[in-house]
């Protein structure tokens, strides 16, 4: 586990094809390193629960 890691569980993600996916997102050193159905909470130093929220990881200053 990196001290610069963040787990964002239960986020709704908009995929490139326009479909939606509910998944966990793991960020380390300001980069997304994993998107999966379930990531263990002990894989990250911090956690933000995104239940009911939308996460758009590929959109930066549209």
Automatic annotation (TrEMBL):
InterPro entries: Metal-dep_hydrolase_composite
Any GO MF annotation of the entry: hydrolase activity, acting on carbon-nitrogen (but not peptide) bonds
Name recorded for this polypeptide: Dihydroorotase-like cyclic amidohydrolase
